[in-house]
Structure formats: structure tokens, C-alpha cells
Design a protein that fits this description.
This protein is of the alpha+beta class. The protein folds into 2 domains: 1-63, no CATH class; 66-168, no CATH class. It contains 6 helices and 9 strands, in the order E-E-H-H-E-H-E-E-H-H-H-E-E-E-E. The protein has a 4-stranded antiparallel sheet with strand order 4-5-7-6. The protein has a 3-stranded mixed sheet with strand order 1-2-3, with no helix packed on it. Strands 8-9 form a two-stranded antiparallel sheet. A hairpin with a 7-residue loop joins strand 1 and strand 2 (13-16). The protein binds iron/sulfur cluster. Iron/sulfur cluster is lined by residues 89-90, 127, 129-130, 133, 135-136, 140, 145, 158-160.
Length: 168
């Protein structure tokens, strides 16, 4: 589904929404038929688009910035390269480890999350990821982690980034 808005003549904002059910091939064909790459469109026309997907590997080629959500909340936001080079949130790390790599000799340490995804209508207290987080501590069960800026433009919501406790 595409939602287009034209707030003025110079800038066109495109809200570009997708789910796993939207064929990536359709998007690829579309932009190629137009003669542009998705990222190229941004510079060419000052476009903004939001692309929603369950497939992080696609994001690498589509987006300049990526936000990762769990149970309806943003848990990490970063420039695409930064996120792929060094994911900080445990949920992002698990997602990254699940990306298929087309190299049979590549050594990949998969992070398999245990438990089911909680009901978003009755989310767990504290950090909503604590019921599945491999590094959860007691504080995570009661205290919602603050959404904080780690570096310029890089945000994460976790009490323990790089093993350091942040009591924000
Ligand atoms: S706040 Fe705790 S439970 Fe939540 S992601 Fe960080 S370590 Fe895991």
C-alpha cells in the first residue's frame, strides 16, 4: 500500500508501507521501471518514505535509517549502516542473527528467543521484552527502559547497553 502526500510543490512525502505480504519484487520492479533506486529517489526528488517490513535484510538496501519495534514500541533507531554493523538492543541482535546468509561456510550464531510474543493489549510490566530477553535482569521486570540517545541520531530503549546498567 502506498500513501502519497504532497505538502508543497518542492517536497513530496511518500508513506511507503508494506508487510511481508507485499511482494518485494513489485517494489523493485516499480523503482526500476521508474529508473531509480529507492535510495536514489530520495536525493532526486527530496522524497521521504516509510517502509514497514518484517524482513530486516531488505531494509539494508531500502532505508537510510531503521527503527526496530517490539510489541508496538520502538526499541532501537539508527542509521542503517550503524544498526547492521553493531545492533545494540537484544531484540535487534536476535533479528539480525536470523537473517539468512547465502554462504554455507559462514559461521552464524543464531539467537533463538524463547517464549511466545505477549499479547500487545496486555503487555508485561517493565521492559515489554523481558519475558524473552536472553540478558534480562530483575530490574527489567518492573522498570520500563528510557528511550535515550546513545550517540547522535542513535537511540535505544534498554537498561543494559553493552552490558552497562543505565538507570534513567
Ligand atoms: S531492558 Fe532488560 S529485558 Fe529489556 S531489552 Fe534491555 S536487558 Fe532485555
Amino acid at each position: 500500500m502506498f500513501v502519497l502526500q504532497a505538502p508543497n510543490q518542492m517536497n513530496v512525502e511518500i508513506l511507503f508501507m508494506s508487510t511481508v505480504f507485499l511482494q518485494i519484487k513489485d517494489i523493485k520492479d516499480l523503482v526500476q521501471n521508474m529508473g531509480f533506486t529507492p535510495k536514489g529517489c530520495l536525493e532526486q526528488f527530496s522524497l521521504t518514505y516509510m517502509f514497514i517490513s518484517h524482513d530486516l535484510s531488505v531494509m539494508r538496501f531500502i532505508a537510510h535509517r531503521v527503527g526496530v519495534m517490539y510489541l508496538g514500541r520502538l526499541v532501537e533507531l539508527a542509521a542503517t549502516n550503524e544498526l547492521f554493523e553493531k545492533p545494540l538492543h537484544p531484540y535487534t541482535k536476535a533479528l539480525m542473527s536470523a537473517i539468512p546468509v547465502p554462504d554455507p561456510e559462514a559461521k552464524i550464531e543464531r539467537i533463538v528467543l524463547s517464549g511466545d510474543v505477549p499479547n500487545p493489549q496486555t503487555p508485561p510490566p517493565g521492559c515489554t521484552f523481558h519475558t524473552r530477553c536472553p540478558i534480562a535482569k530483575d530490574v527489567c521486570k518492573t522498570k520500563l527502559p528510557e528511550w535515550r540517545e546513545i550517540n547522535t541520531g542513535r537511540f535505544v530503549a534498554c537498561h543494559f547497553v553493552d552490558g552497562e546498567f543505565y538507570d534513567g
